[in-house]
Amino acid sequence: MRPSTEAELSEMIREAARPLRIRGGGTRGLGPAEGVVLETGGLSGVTLYEPGALTLVARAGTPLAEVEAVLSAERQRLAFEVPDLRGLLAREGVSTLGGVASANASGPRRVQVGAARDHLLGLRFVDGRGDVVKNGGRVMKNVTGYDLVKLLAGAQGKLGVLSEVSLKVQAIPEAEATLWRETGGTAGLAALRAALGSPFDVSGAGLAGGRAMIRLEGMEGSVAYRTAALRAHLGGEWQVAGGAESAALWTRLRDVEPFAGAPGAVWRLSMVPTAAAGVEAALTAAGLPHRALYDWGGGLVWLLVDSPEAAAIRALPGLGHATLVRPLPGMEGVPAFHPEPAALAALTAGLRAKFDPRGLFNPGIMD
Q1: What Cα–Cα distance (Å) separates residue 140 from each residue in 60, 168, 324?
Q2: Per-residue pLDDT tens digits for 203-240
Q3: In which residue ranges of the chain is CATH 3.30.70 found?
Q4: Are residues 112 and 96 in contact, defined by beta-carbon separation less than 8 angstroms?
Q5: 2 with 39: CB under 8 angstroms?
Q6: Would you say domain 175-254 falls under CATH 3.30.70?
Q7: Burial class (CB in 10 A: 0-12, 13-18, 19+), 214
């Protein structure tokens, strides 16, 4: 099933007699989704772009690369730095704008600008009854009622099938620089937190392979001043990478490249940044061989674990949730998404019953 218009999408959902597996480009979906494949790639194209207003509207199946090319021509970008996990997950395909929104896919710059959901101005989607729903608009404003834009971002297609997305975009900065230093995990994470707590407007704070990295972006003169000031603020011997060299460092962390092709289960942990330093010690104590990458100053931890063990990981102190991004054989019974507390699960079930009363969308995901 591959609709080419919103009306066709609505009709297909209205007449569906079996569960539907919603598919954008097939590059980032998690969990054992079941059902007849419903592809959104036919709903493609940028329908409105106003560079002066920093606003773009596109259909949900529009390839992310197409959106980025349109923005790049005007020296603009999606501020939230979308991760490309095709290498990590050994997948092909083309990432779509609707898939990015449905996964709330956000990269290292989240520490400065927020997540993908924070840049969504509005959207259109089709619910489980086949009704077209519109929420939000093309400008940021205060409104009353349900904020469906935030609700559907990260919902993994469980509440509806996106047909159109409206976004605010950002000008590409004149310069960027990355301070980096070879350092241990605990000291490196402390440096990242110190940088994020400084007044120097950090746009990236990560730790990979024993190297702490702190990114600054903006006007050339401002970046030069803040780089020097932050080096003095942190103390120690910090190197500076600029331009393409700096960008390559963050692409590698954003896309979790060190774990691509490496054997083991891959976990994505959202946690209290101050607790991140204890993750590796806790896993070592539990006898779980592992490697770790840190982003968002320790708020995001990527783990490569050479074991199918899940309970110890989901019991780590300071953990918000642990998502199983790439399982090992034998982990078929481990849910990809962190189990919800009973009260939250009841609320989630109520929302799904409201938006998808027949249970059509992506059964097996987040259930």
Answers
A1: 20, 8, 34
A2: 999 999 999 999 999 999 999 999 999 999 999 899 99
A3: 175-254
A4: no
A5: yes
A6: yes
A7: buried
